[in-house]
Task: structure prediction
Amino acid sequence: MVPFAEEDVRVVPANEASWAELEAVFGAADAGRCRCRRFTVVGWLWRDSTQEERVAMLREQTACDEPGAPATSGLVAYVGDEPAGWVAVEPRLAYPKLRTLRVPWSGRDEDRDDPGVWAVTCFVVRRGFRGRGLTCHLARAAVDFARDRGASAVEGYPVVEEPGKVVTWGEMNVGARQVFQDAGFTEVGRPTLRRVVMRVDFTAASHAAITANRA
Result:
């Protein structure tokens, strides 16, 4: 399938989208049940919360239908007029579970409470729009979104796709390493064989790398 061109895709903060549009993106797949609560819910697993609680949390944090809201927790992508994708991106401190996991911190000397670092934690692409590079558009938009709102850096924790091994759609909700590379992220940690930490620091050097990747 032909990848979506830049002009095919429009990405907006979630508060500028309607709740009905975001619901259409999530649908009934695994992401529709989790609602990007893996790193935010109280309890060991996101399943320790109810579906109703997760839906309510997502609706509150995205502030959908509220274009004047001071904050939101993600971006919605449209192809034409159709809502097609979502990416969760907000300050890393908004994800309390990240403080206790191995993946973000192993092998790094990093301030876990740095309020300037943002995190990209979840991608969802609506059925019918998959396989055409929409996550790449969302990752690039997430970098711009974080930078424009004063972040000092933005991180992601993607999966490494190994030849010959099947990666399920649920596992890929954190994104693939290549997607982050294409958006200008640099690998800064590899806590496991299948997970890496990717990061953009908002310096002149990182801006130059992002521009080069987009050329």
Remarks:
- The longest helix spans residues 134-148.
- The helical segments are 19-26, 30-34, 51-62, 134-148, 177-182, 204-214.
- Strands lie at 9-13, 74-79, 82-91, 117-125, 153-156, 186-189, 197-201.
- The radius of gyration is 16 Å.
